[in-house]
Automatic annotation (TrEMBL):
Keywords: Elongation factor, Protein biosynthesis. One of its GO terms (biological process) is regulation of DNA-templated transcription elongation. The keyword Protein biosynthesis applies. It comes from Mycolicibacterium gilvum (strain DSM 45189 / LMG 24558 / Spyr1) (Mycobacterium gilvum). It holds the Pfam family GreA_GreB. This is GreA/GreB family elongation factor. InterPro entries: GreA/GreB_C_sf, Tscrpt_elong_fac_GreA/B_C. Residues 66-139 form the Transcription elongation factor GreA/GreB C-terminal domain. GO terms for molecular function: DNA binding; translation elongation factor activity. The keyword Transferase does not apply.
Length: 157
């Protein structure tokens, strides 16, 4: 597992944040009106947020392929009450993926699953006060999941 002061993000997310940071820093400063100053202050805050994320970002491309639920892993879970399954990336809110939902390790389900291995059942509290039981079916590194998705989408020869 990773130390609490580091976060995992995909190489694509890192690149996107670096591009956003460069664009924000290249924009001119305030010209004087209150609206312009407010926009400039908001831009400064976003620059601070991105800088903090990039500073805390884990430099490893992927966690070990050991089946343990941790940041950077694509998890498939079964909701035990309904039998439905869901696949998502365990990451940070800054980790955006067009193909997968992203759950933070600080979310109720993310924190409950942290450290789980396939077959383990975990529970977490729902906003309405109820309890949700989930079973971890699989945990794969993001890159391995992405390779499988590309392979599955490629034409057969």
């Amino acid at each position: 597992m990773q130390p609490a002061d580091t976060i995992w993000m995909s190489p694509q997310t890192r690149e996107s944040l670096e591009q956003e940071l460069a664009a924000l820093m290249a924009a001119p400063g305030p010209a004087g009106s209150d609206e312009v100053v407010d926009a400039w202050l908001a831009r400064k805050e976003r620059i601070r947020q991105i800088h903090e994320l990039l500073t805390k970002a884990e430099h490893a491309v992927d966690p070990a392929d050991d089946g343990v639920a941790e940041p950077g892993m694509v998890l498939t879970v079964r909701f035990d009450d309904a039998g439905d399954t869901e696949t998502f990336l365990l990451g940070t809110r800054a980790t955006v993926d067009s193909e997968l939902d992203v759950y933070s390790v600080n979310s109720p389900m993310g924190s409950a699953l942290l450290g789980a291995t396939p077959g383990q059942q975990r529970s977490y509290q729902l906003p309405n006060g109820g309890t949700q039981q989930v079973t971890l079916l699989s945990a794969k590194p993001f890159a391995a999941h992405a390779r499988e998705a590309v392979t599955a989408g490629s034409p057969q020869r």
